[in-house]
Automatic annotation (TrEMBL):
Keywords: Transferase. This is CoA transferase. The keyword Chaperone does not apply. InterPro entries: CoA-transferase_III_domain, CoA-Trfase_fam_III, CoA-Trfase_III_dom3_sf, CoA-Trfase_III_dom_1_sf. PANTHER family: SUCCINATE--HYDROXYMETHYLGLUTARATE COA-TRANSFERASE (PTHR48207:SF3). GO terms for molecular function: CoA-transferase activity. Signal peptide: none annotated. It comes from the Bacteria.
């Protein structure tokens, strides 16, 4: 038995068992957060190659960076879901689980004999979550959906650019992650309801729906004005000053979300007169005269360095920040003080750094993570512990190609 499978899960979801058929990002991020919260997660992977992200370079030992990022603290079993014995194992495991998670196209799990109706009949308390690109009822039907597709159809890409520049996808995979985040909301709500009713639910999340739900005030700009918001780069469509401003040696973020911060900023610039200037005194007036005000601000800020402005903005209590690289963000003091990075040991990849989950309970974050598993690393342990299979039975299933093991 792999000693990593003997860890006792701690956290609010300790005792919750999750059977995770998902792959790539939208499902695995969800199940990773469930594991962070204490759930026991069994990741079901195809025998031939496993989750596709296992093959995405660069690598740390045998593990892909992509797979590492989304699959800590899970056990991996390899099943052939086109083999009747593989499907039987999956159904037997689902009978013992609280949650089943999948992100195939609509209808795939039904064709495999693992759809909601089948598994619910065998486990009425099962919370079954399906993440798809567009949902079962959509004119996009069975089209494949990845992050950039959802971003394009959500309207997000149209505003994620400087004016007169080409549309850009977000630097983070928010199309996938929006589906993950809303699936967590749905799953956790369904588990709470099950505590009262004893009955599970089929939670259905579409990535495109999720991104559209995250448009926030942008959708209301359209509903209120009848016009789509236009790209403003790092600026804000309705608040000014807000965004990235040039200094002598780089750029500085300034965010004057309230009138108080605008007044503080004007004083910081040495231009208190701007506060009473009829062109800039109120939100609406500043927007009407955006170009004129931006020219004044940029002309002043270009005269000093980034560090000088960061110190001065902080002194005047103006929300501000430098624009950090990914490496700079991970190495900043905040990350160290908050304990957001931990190191785990893997038998083949060696020491691996991971970004910890951000949720604290009573001041404490997630328990110690388990390193991402090799493909099928836990097949023997899970079949033995969960289903009571003997080593002889497991060996026979492996020989027949129904299961795989590391």
């Amino acid at each position: 038995m792999n000693p990593q499978t003997e860890q006792t899960r701690t956290g609010p979801l300790a005792g919750i068992k999750v059977l995770d058929f998902s792959r790539i990002l939208s499902g695995p991020y969800c199940s990773m957060v469930l594991a962070d919260l204490g759930a026991e997660v069994i990741k079901v992977e195809p025998i031939d190659g496993g989750d596709d992200t296992r093959n995405f370079p660069p690598f740390k030992g045998p593990l892909s960076h992509y797979f590492i990022a989304l699959n800590r603290s899970k056990q991996s079993i390899a099943l052939d879901l086109k083999n009747p014995d593989g499907v039987k194992i999956a159904r037997d495991l689902a009978r013992q689980c609280d949650v089943v998670l999948e992100n195939f196209r609509p209808g795939v799990m039904d064709r495999l004999g693992l759809g909601y109706d089948v598994l619910k009949a065998e486990n009425p308390g099962l919370v079954y979550c399906s993440i798809t690109g567009f949902g079962r009822k959509s004119p996009h039907g069975d089209k494949p959906a990845f992050d950039i597709v959802a971003q394009a159809l959500s309207g997000v890409m149209s505003v994620n650019r400087e004016p007169d520049q080409a549309p850009n996808k977000l630097g983070i995979p928010l199309g996938d992650m929006a589906g993950s985040i809303f699936s967590l909301f749905g799953l956790l709500a369904a588990l709470v309801e099950r505590g009262s009713t004893g009955q599970g639910r089929h939670v259905e999340i579409a990535m495109l729906d999720s991104l559209i739900a995250m448009q926030g005030y942008l959708s209301q700009i359209y509903f209120v004005t009848g016009e789509s918001p236009q790209p403003v780069g790092t600026r804000h469509p309705s608040i000014l000053p807000y965004g990235s401003y040039p200094a002598a040696d780089g750029h500085v973020i300034v965010a004057c979300l309230t009138e108080r911060f605008w007044h503080n900023f004007a004083r910081c610039l040495g231009r208190e007169d701007l506060i009473t200037d009829e062109r800039f005194g109120q939100y609406e007036k500043r927007l009407e005269n955006r170009d004129e005000l931006e020219e004044i601000i940029c002309g002043i800020m270009k005269q000093q360095t980034v560090d000088t402005w960061l110190d001065r903005l902080t002194e005047f209590d103006v929300p501000n920040a430098p624009i950090l690289s990914i490496g700079g963000a991970l190495e900043q003091d905040h990350v160290a003080e908050r304990g957001l990075i931990e190191t785990v040991s893997h038998p083949e990849a060696g020491e691996i750094k991971l970004v910890r989950g951000p949720i604290l309970f009573d001041g404490e974050g997630p328990g110690k993570a388990r390193a991402p598993a090799l493909l099928g690393e836990d097949t023997h342990a899970v079949l033995g512990q969960w289903l009571g299979y003997s080593e002889a039975q497991i060996a026979e299933l492996e020989k027949a190609g129904a299961i795989g093991a590391a």
